[in-house]
Amino acid sequence: MKVVAHYDNLESQQFDGGPVKGVTGRIAIGQADGAPNFCMRIFTIAPGGHTPRHAHDWEHEILVHSGSGQVLKAGQWTDVSGGSVVFVPGNEEHQFRNNSDQDLVFACLIPKGAPEL
């Protein structure tokens, strides 16, 4: 079992350049923890930041923890905020952006075989 007092205590990786801006990623639960089927990641997007616009074979299950922003869904931007739930099927183009003045934080689950970060 793994218990972490707060996700801020997890090792982080910064992504800032090219197709991504102002993103911090953390592996909350992954292969190193003995999780054989899923990986839980925590992403923080700074104000004005965004993930890359992309698609891949695996699905995402996402819970927006705090803040507000938008997710690209079928070519249209949809507002999300703390408490929002997003399902991204495999091979669907998607992107998150923070168009607010506070951090956008979300948990993202991916299946085994997908890159953890």
Describe this structure in a few short sentences.
0% of the residues lie in helices and 52% in strands.
What does this structure look like?
- The protein has 117 residues and is mostly beta strands.
- It has a single domain, classed as Jelly Rolls.
- It is 0% helix and 52% strand.
- It is built from no helices and 9 strands.
- The strands form 2 sheets. A 6-stranded antiparallel beta sheet has the order 1-2-3-9-4-7, with no helix packed on it. A 3-stranded antiparallel beta sheet has the order 6-5-8, with no helix packed on it.
- The model has no long low-confidence stretch (mean pLDDT 96).
Poorly predicted parts: none
Going by CATH, what is the homologous superfamily? Jelly Rolls
Order of helices and strands: EEEEEEEEE
Structural class by helix and strand composition: mainly beta
What is the average of the pLDDT values?
Answer: 96
Number of strands: 9
How would you characterize the largest beta sheet? Answer: 6 strands, antiparallel
Question: What Rg, in angstroms, do the CA atoms define?
Answer: 14 Å
Strands of the widest sheet, in order across it, are 1-2-3-9-4-7
The dominant shape is globular
Number of helices: 0
> Can you tell me the number of structural domains?
1
Give the percentage of residues in beta strands.
over 45%
* Percent of residues in helices: under 10%
Given this structure, which CATH class is correct? Mainly Beta
Q: Per CATH, which architecture?
A: Sandwich
CATH fold label: Jelly Rolls
Distance between the termini: 21 Å
